[in-house]
């Protein structure tokens, strides 16, 4: 326990408090010896990063309980409704490989805050194969992961507005069940408009 606290940069008293609040899973026991591992350290680093971003211990405790005991990761990530996205299960090492070592506690906390990541046992679950591949490609091109996540948050704001616009448009003229059936049309409009916008931006720069 003392070694884990030292590596995490917290006091043993704080570590005991986190254990009592069930913010970290119990250690593996062999007789009277309690063994902690890299997963405990990663959880502590994530807790620290979430606290620095303004999350409360109660909120973090709810996340930890869902991660450790709730098997419905789709519900945790907000994927109860039909979706075209495919979740991806990764080990912590595989996630680090995707982003060339740029998976810091701060970036991990930001991705969890956005709902991109969840944890199911010892696996990490990314909400979307497409988002994972695109963000990984951007990082390989030299763009810091923190900037990719910041852009993702801004894009989320605009796409939420566009989704609301199309849903309201369809519901004014069609039954509610038509929203899921017609969603590919909305995506095609957004793809085409984004493509045209990129053309205009590149032409101005040229």
Write up what this structure looks like.
Helix content is 65%, strand content 8%. α9 (145-173) crosses α10 (178-205). Strands 3-5-4 form a three-stranded antiparallel β-sheet. Strands 1-2 form a two-stranded antiparallel ribbon. It is mainly α.
In short:
With 206 residues, this protein is mostly helical.
User: Gyration radius, to the nearest Å?
Assistant: 21 Å
Which consecutive residue ranges, at least 5 long each, have pLDDT under 50? 70-74, 76-80
> What is the helical fraction, as a range of percent?
55-70%
Structural class, please? mainly alpha
Residue share in β-strands: 5-15%
Largest sheet: spatial strand order: 3-5-4
Q: What is the count of helical runs? A: 10
Overall shape: elongated
Question: Strand tally, please?
Answer: 5
Distance between the termini: 59 Å
Describe the largest sheet.
3 strands, antiparallel
Mean pLDDT over the full residue set: 83
Order of helices and strands: HHEEHHHEHHEEHHH
């Amino acid at each position: 326990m003392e070694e884990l606290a030292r590596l995490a940069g917290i006091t043993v008293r704080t570590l005991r408090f986190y254990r009592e609040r069930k913010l970290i899973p119990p250690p593996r026991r062999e007789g009277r010896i309690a063994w902690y591992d890299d997963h405990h350290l990663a959880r502590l680093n994530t807790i620290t990063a979430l606290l620095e971003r303004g999350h409360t211990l109660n909120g973090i405790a709810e996340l930890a309980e869902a991660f450790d005991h709730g098997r419905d990761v789709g519900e945790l990530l907000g994927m109860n409704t039909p979706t075209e996205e495919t979740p991806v299960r990764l080990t912590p090492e595989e996630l680090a490989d995707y982003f060339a070592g740029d998976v810091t506690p701060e970036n991990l906390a930001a991705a969890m805050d956005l709902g991109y990541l969840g944890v199911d046992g010892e696996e990490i679950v990314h909400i979307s194969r497409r988002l994972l591949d695109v963000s990984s490609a951007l990082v390989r091109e030299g763009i810091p992961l923190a900037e990719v996540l910041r852009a993702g948050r801004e894009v989320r704001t605009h796409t939420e507005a566009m989704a609301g616009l199309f849903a309201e448009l369809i519901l004014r003229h069609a039954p509610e069940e038509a929203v899921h059936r017609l969603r590919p049309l909305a995506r095609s409009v957004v793809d085409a408009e984004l493509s045209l916008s990129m053309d205009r931006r590149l032409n101005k720069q040229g």
